[in-house]
């Protein structure tokens, strides 16, 4: 369902993968500006072969997503959030699972202020040898019938002071780079081939030869 939804919703999805080989556990520190962010991260971690957990605010509406790493993180239910955090830390330590962390957990329009959530500090404190990788997800609408998207990953962050702030800065830089890329995307970065434009699908010139002169 996720793969079908992405193919139907986008013309193309591009990605810049990390240059450094990664092994779990990894925290993917992402911005969160689009409804499809979780779906796109599913494609990224699947491509990289890194099983990852994901805290989902509306988990109760989509419980079957548990099969691909979704965990309940409903607003207004602190006891369930605490239980999810504890289970996440246990699985990251015992199974080397990774974690997709969407900023401060709130879906915000692009351009609004955001910050990296405090949960990152807790995970770093409780899970030894965890790697933090900044990720920017951006969308562009214009030259195609459907939008295009880009998932731009950075290099692992060096642990130490002000990591949340440094991660935020890295994600913002990656987002600008991804927007520039989408002006002239390259097929070498293609992650998902979506739905071509109607003129690309039904071009009668290609089917029957050019009509007229």
Large-scale geometry = globular
Instruction: Note the total helix count.
Output: 7
What is the strand content? 15-25%
Radius of gyration, whole Å:
19 Å
Got a strand count?
A: 8
Distance between the termini: 45 Å
> Which strand order does the major sheet show?
4-3-5-2-6-7-1-8
In terms of per-residue confidence, which ranges show pLDDT below 50 for 5 or more consecutive residues?
Answer: none
Largest sheet, in brief, is: 8 strands, mixed
| Residue-averaged pLDDT | 92
> How much helicity do the residues have?
25-40%
User: Structural class of the helices, strands and pairings?
Assistant: alpha/beta
**Secondary-structure element string:** HEEHEEHEHEEHEHH
Could you walk me through the main structural features you see in this protein, from its secondary elements to its overall organization?
- There is one protein chain.
- This protein is 36% helix and 20% strand.
- With 213 residues, the protein is an alpha/beta fold.
- The longest helix is centred in the last third of the chain and has 21 residues, at 163-183.
- The termini are far apart.
- α1 (2-9) packs across α2 (37-48).
Fold topology:
Blueprint: H1 2-9, E1 12-16, E2 26-30, H2 37-48, E3 52-56, E4 70-72, H3 78-95, E5 98-102, H4 119-126, E6 131-140, E7 148-153, H5 163-183, E8 190-193, H6 198-201, H7 204-208
Parallel strand pairs: 1-7, 2-5, 2-6, 3-4, 3-5
Antiparallel strand pairs: 1-8, 6-7
Helix pairs in contact: 1-2
Output the keywords.
213 residues; alpha/beta; 7 helices; globular
């Amino acid at each position: 369902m996720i793969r079908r939804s992405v193919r139907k919703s986008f013309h193309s999805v591009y990605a810049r993968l990390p240059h450094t080989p990664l092994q779990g556990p990894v925290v993917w520190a992402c911005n969160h500006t689009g409804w499809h962010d979780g779906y796109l991260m599913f494609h990224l971690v699947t491509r990289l072969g890194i099983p990852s957990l994901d805290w989902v605010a509306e988990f109760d509406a989509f419980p079957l997503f548990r099969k691909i790493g979704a965990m309940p993180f409903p607003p207004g239910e602190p006891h369930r959030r605490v239980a999810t955090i504890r289970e996440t830390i246990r699985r990251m330590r015992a199974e080397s699972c990774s974690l997709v962390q969407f900023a401060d957990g709130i879906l915000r329009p692009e351009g609004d202020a955001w910050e990296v959530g405090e949960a990152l500090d807790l995970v770093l404190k409780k899970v030894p040898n965890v790697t933090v990788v900044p990720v920017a997800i951006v969308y562009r609408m214009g030259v195609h019938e459907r939008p295009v998207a880009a998932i731009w990953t950075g290099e692992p962050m060096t642990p130490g002071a002000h990591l949340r702030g440094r991660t935020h800065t890295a994600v913002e830089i990656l987002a600008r780079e991804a927007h520039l890329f989408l002006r002239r995307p390259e097929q070498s970065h293609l992650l998902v081939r979506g739905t071509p434009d109607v003129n690309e699908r039904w071009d009668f010139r290609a089917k029957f030869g050019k009509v007229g002169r």
